[in-house]
Amino acid sequence: MEIFSHVDRAPRFGAIRTFVLAEIGNPALCLADIAAQQSISTSYVRKLFAAERTTFTKYVLDVRLRNVASMLADPDARIHPISTVAARCGFNDVSYFNRVFRKRYGCTPSDMRRGRMPMPGVSSVRFDPLNG
Description:
- By secondary structure, this protein is mainly α.
- The chain has helices at residues 6-23, 31-38, 42-51, 56-73, 82-88, 94-105, 109-113.
């Protein structure tokens, strides 16, 4: 029986989170990149994400959406078109980005940029890169 304790996985998952945050703007970021960088198998990476009650795909999407929301709330970022903000956060398909953004926040990226508050019960638009 494999022992998969919180103590053993915490430092590894922390390193994975750090890597994901550093590479989040890369639209081609994939599970294999993390596995190669950490010198572990992709199945072990999946287990680490599962132990955190998420998947790699959900985690990356969540980080990207929170990064975009944070940038849209920043008055200094208003000079950049929303499509540029999305691309900088790793979205290379604007239609997909708009669809997942609206589903998550209950408003369009333009609405959020104009100051419309997200739907009640939706997570805060503030992003803390240390706590994902």
